[in-house]
Amino acid sequence: MSIAQQQATVKSNSTSTDRTPLDKLSALLSADMLKVNEKILLNMESGVSLIPQIASYLIAAGGKRIRPLLTLACTRLYGDTGERPFNLAASVEFIHTATLLHDDVVDGSDQRRGKKAANLVFGNQASVLVGDFLFSRAFQLMVEDGSIKVLKILSDASAIIAQGEVKQLTTANNLTTTMEDYIEVVSAKTAALFAAACEIGPVIADAGEPQENAMREYGMCLGIAFQIVDDVLDYSATQQKLGKSIGDDFQEGKMTAPVIIALASADAQDKEFLTRTIEHKDQKDGDLEQMQQILLKYNALEQGMDMARSYAEKAKNALKDTPQCELRELLADLITFTIEREY
Amino acid sequence: MSIAQQQATVKSNSTSTDRTPLDKLSALLSADMLKVNEKILLNMESGVSLIPQIASYLIAAGGKRIRPLLTLACTRLYGDTGERPFNLAASVEFIHTATLLHDDVVDGSDQRRGKKAANLVFGNQASVLVGDFLFSRAFQLMVEDGSIKVLKILSDASAIIAQGEVKQLTTANNLTTTMEDYIEVVSAKTAALFAAACEIGPVIADAGEPQENAMREYGMCLGIAFQIVDDVLDYSATQQKLGKSIGDDFQEGKMTAPVIIALASADAQDKEFLTRTIEHKDQKDGDLEQMQQILLKYNALEQGMDMARSYAEKAKNALKDTPQCELRELLADLITFTIEREY
Questions:
Q1: CB-based contact B136 A166, cutoff 8 Å
Q2: Pairing label, strands A111-112, A115-116
Q3: Closest to B136 (Cβ–Cβ): which among A148, A158, A169?
Q4: Is the predicted pLDDT of residue B146 greater than 90, yes or no?
Q5: I need a labelling partner for A214 at 20 to 30 A (CA). Which of A72, A315, B12, B47 fits?
Q6: What is the pLDDT of residue A16?
Q7: From the candidates A53, A133, A149, A200, which should be mutated to test the interface with B, based on the most B CB atoms within 10 A?
Q8: Domain coordinates of chain A in residue numbers?
Q9: Which CATH class is domain A20-340?
Q10: How many CB pairs under 8 A join A and B?
């Protein structure tokens, strides 16, 4: 083997081991994802130019496209199912994008996907209305597909997401929030769309109720694990890797897993700190760093990760009676990746 | 006839002439509307108490319930059609309520239906999210009904409404807005839901495409007339009758029919006034009164009403091949009322 060949082999090996399961899933489904991206671009068009402008600002910013990938994977797991998944995967991404636009208005976010948040660039008004447009367009795509079952799954998910977001408003700055409240919020605002994105796969493929339930459970548990890890990363990641500000949850006084865990064991002084910063929203320079110290002291990030790992385990179990193939392996690897990612 | 009997007759006559066609429609369909109200109350329930709290704040504030009434009337015009219209009329009212919640956030409104706007009482965040919830719930109700055709009509309408609202953002404070732009905004943001509310009547009743088109045209033209009158009343009504602040459109620099008409004939001095107050948003005490004088000078309110009347005429024509009955008479009277109302 020539040196050049050796170098090429090393490079290809290292590329292959560096690639995340999400990258591999994208690569395996790249022809399908191309079609989904076409549908996305086509359907965010409008005679009112501000609409594609804002939609593409957010959608072109990339993001992991994890939800449409899940829909594709959970459909193709059951063989070739034609073109139906494309519209529906685009529909799932539109619902997600609409919730991001509204979330950023609600949270007053500064950054999203490594860029200035859309509400800061285009204003809250446009963000609310373009979110409404994308949400409506999602339903138009489902109607075009024509399955009432899919429409039920995704309209139920949408209602649950909004309900979860409202509940989150009422738990913010509220130290009486329990871990059950938190899991309810997380299941609704994040995991419900993961679950729906996965469940519609076997529905499209007509694979029967046990498979629908299995994929729904997989998506739900993956989504809960994903959000818990997100909430841990909000205290532990580096801003560069995360692509959004860290400490946002702290600043907004969100009651996430790490906070609830720390609060349960906190001594009087730390409780006082949490009351001032989270309940009374009275924060000053250095408070985020002190909060991070408190979370370390009570091992709250690690305990949060343990919770995430237990949902990851459930997600893995949900896959056991689904068709054995490369896609299933990648779906399983995706769970591990969700837990181990640093962003 | 005894004096008491005479008095009773006079009273009943005067009551009957004082009642608006909307009141009469409500009375004729009161049993149905009771069922619709039950559906509305039932479906805004949620374990997250802030949701029914905000939804009922707005829905209990009354409003004219004109859209669900239109759905009921346009269904019952074709005979008894069972229980289907109840869920769908509630769905139409939920879409309307969701857009009101989002509109008030976008416009920064102070008043709605004679009360403090929901965003001021509960905050913009909750208004955005509860709007999303009601919107999702509307689709859940349609899914429960199960008609893809109805889902298509209402998801198309929802996308068009959002698009119209975004277009309105881009026309605000923009003196180059044409009457065509204005009619496009009005057709989308208001008339599309009127049209859809009416069209689903013959769809539910399975009355055939010509009837669907006729009722759609009726709703569309009624909706355009309704909005033009609204925009005239925003300069001419009394606040007490309107149940919301007058001059809101002026303050927000909205390019409505009266403004576009006046601008077309305005002399240099009046143009300067419009540029300062509407384009540059530089308004001071007394400007609303001066604006009203300018609208009078160019006969802009009366010309706006003429436009509304021409759409009213089209709405009347649309009814000519629909079943002749008391309901149709009331639908026709509703057009006249829309034009002649003072609120």
A1: no
A2: antiparallel
A3: A158
A4: yes
A5: B47
A6: 47
A7: A133
A8: 20-340
A9: mainly alpha
A10: 130
Closest CA to B40 of B78, B103, B8, B88: B88
Distance from CA of B144 to the nearest CA of A (A): 8
Question: pLDDT exceeding 70 applies to what percent of chain A?
Answer: 90
Q: Are B107 and B248 in contact (CB under 8 A)?
A: yes
Q: Is A2 left (phi over 0), alpha (psi -120 to 50) or beta?
A: beta
CA–CA dist A341, B217 (Å, integer): 55
**Per-residue pLDDT at A5:** 43
Distance from the first to the final alpha carbon of chain A = 38
Asked whether the beta carbons of residue B136 and residue A105 sit closer than 8 angstroms, the reply is no
Chain B residue whose CA is closest to A50:
B166
CB atoms within 10 A of CB B53: 16
- Residue A316's alpha-carbon distances to A79, A215, A320, B282, in angstroms, are 21, 11, 7, 61
For B26, the token pair is 């409500």
**Which of B100, B129, B147 to mutate to probe the A interface, most A CBs <10 Å?**
B129
pLDDT at B57: 85
Integer-rounded Cα radius of gyration of chain A: 21
Query: What is the C-alpha separation between A150 and A134, in angstroms, rounded?
Result: 18
In the beta sheet, which residues pair with residue B8?
none
Determine the Cα–Cα distance for residues B64 and B244; give it in Å rounded to an integer: 14
Measured CA distances, B106 to A104, A158, B168 (Å): 15, 22, 11
Q: What is the pLDDT of residue A239?
A: 58
Subunit contact B156:A163, Cβ cutoff 8 A: no
pLDDT (average), residues A136-141: 98
pLDDT-derived band at B269, boundaries 50, 70, 90: very high
Q: What is the rounded distance in angstroms from the CA atom of residue B154 to the CA atom of residue B68?
A: 13
Question: Is the CB of A133 less than 8 angstroms away from the CB of B102?
Answer: no
Inter-chain touch A166–B51, beta carbons under 8 Å: yes
Q: Which among A139, A167, A170 has the least Cβ separation from residue B158?
A: A139
CA separation for the pair B43, B96 (Å, rounded): 15
User: B132, A170: Cβ pair inside 8 Å?
Assistant: no
How far away is chain B from the Cα of A136, in angstroms, using its nearest Cα?
Answer: 5
Q: Do A165 and B102 touch (CB under 8 A)?
A: no
Q: Are A70 and A33 in contact (CB under 8 A)?
A: no
The position carrying tokens 């005067």 is B14
pLDDT at B14: 40
Q: What is the pLDDT of residues A72-104, one digit of tens each?
A: 999 999 997 789 999 999 999 999 999 999 988
The answer to whether residue A123 scores a pLDDT higher than 90 is: no
Taking contacts as CB-CB distances below 8 angstroms, the residues of chain A near B146 are 148
Identity of the amino acid at A256 = T
Retrieve residue A156's tokens.
Answer: 């139920």
Nearest by CB: B135 against A51, A135, A156: A135
| Distance set, CA B91 to CA A155, B141, B151 (Å) | 13, 6, 10
* E strand or H helix that includes residue A141: helix A124-145
Whether the pLDDT of residue B7 is over 60: the answer is: no
Report the distance separating Cα A299 and Cα A303, nearest Å.
Answer: 6
The model carries a pTM of 0.91
B148 contacts in chain A (CB < 8 Å)? 143, 146, 148
Closest CB to A162: pick one of B124, B132, B166. B132
